[in-house]
Amino acid sequence: MTGPAPTPLQFGWEEWIALPALGLPALRAKVDTGARTSALHASDIETFGPQARPKVRFTVHPIPGREDLLIPCSAAISDRREITSSNGEKELRYVIETPLEVAGTRWPIEVTLTDRSTMASRMLLGRQALHEAINIHATDRFCQPELDYEVYHSPSVRAAQPPRALRIAVLSRENNHSTRRLVEEGEKRGHTVEVIDTTRCYMAISTLAPEVHYDGKRLPRYDAVIPRIGASVTQYGTAIVRQFETIGTFSVNPSHGITASRDKLHAHQIMSRAKVPMPDTAFAASPKDTHNLIALAGNAPLIVKLLESTQGKGVVLAETRKAAESVIDAFRGLNANFLVQDFVKEAAGEDIRCLVVGGKVVASMKRKGAEGDFRSNLHRGGTATAVRISREERETAARAARAFGLGMAGVDMLRAAEGPRVLEVNSSPGFEGIEAATGKNVVGKLYDEIEHHVRPKHVRRRKA
């Protein structure tokens, strides 16, 4: 026995509709049974993703005359079709499938993307979108419940935005574990992640149209960039990051934070200003100040550290005052810039690496140096285990990352008798060691942060 037939929907020549999967809760659509395919007003149309599963991203101005309100959208491409408009002009358009919602009822429709800026309606509903349970009243309009553009001014709209595929660039010269994890995790979430060799980028610097080029072509518009700038290319790499910032691309770590964290003298000055606890540190350029330099850092044993050292290279433990003087003289003989730092004996060759993402510690591990080595870097044979950190250590790590404005940072600290002491803030931390030691998906936390930042912002009402 069959149930009663569904009550037909009544449509006029114009109706309010929603395209929830695209984050468009209210659109006025013209119903046109003379047109076969539906069309949505879209701009900045750009394809991305693998050729086997191509996607398209575009922006929509849902309210006519309101160019300040812009909704970014993305969808899988189902077809590319030649469409003939009412005036006889032919256009090749991308076709997507998306649910249409009217009065609580949803059904899938095909939509082509095109420029309808000269049209009164941002959406046209063609025959394919109108199933047999819809009755058309050509002389009426708004037979279904009317919606309101005010929904776009509500903060809850941003929270309800559907996930959309992003195009993300990883700025890296290395095909290492961390780079591969960034690609793997991003693609698992449906994003397109492209690895860009920073040194092969070049910049077109202009007032109106700054651009980044790569291997002879202008790079596309990325939703976000993840800088993995090596120490040897810090200056040029941060210039590329600045260029992306100029264009308006979201960067996980800003150029100024990367630059400051790489220069250890500058970094310690920033932490001093932000009142981040660290070992006593001293710096001087003149060889006449060697004795005072050692005294300022707390006397032997001392750490003598090159300003741009990485992975434990250029870091020397001087166990006696005489040894400290010899190391300092040797570094000065090489015209090397260095600082002198108090050695925290009670740390016993161990330090804590905290991974900070979005101002929060998402994972932490204890690193212990190889036998006979005071340096705990994993690259030098150190070992890592998960560790519970105190509230003070957690707050110190977050404050250190915040002092540099870094959205992602590895904060290294020692457990001194007086409390945590920050050694270094790393703007390109590795993921292999900390994910293996803690079992946590820290790269996933990074993508949570990226997705949060690139979602549409709440739009205030425009004053009349």
Automatic annotation (TrEMBL):
One of its GO terms (biological process) is translation. Keywords: ATP-binding, Ligase, Magnesium, Manganese, Metal-binding, Nucleotide-binding, Protein biosynthesis. Its cofactor is Mg(2+); Mn(2+). Residues 268-451 form the ATP-grasp domain. Coiled coil: none annotated. InterPro entries: Asp_endopeptidase, ATP-grasp, ATP-grasp_RimK-type, ATP_grasp_subdomain_1, Peptidase_aspartic_dom_sf, Rimk_N, Rp_bS6_RimK/Lys_biosynth_LsyX. SUPFAM superfamilies: Acid proteases, Glutathione synthetase ATP-binding domain-like. GO terms for cellular component: cytoplasm. One of its GO terms (molecular function) is metal ion binding. In the C-terminal section; belongs to the RimK family. This is Probable alpha-L-glutamate ligase. It comes from Vannielia litorea.
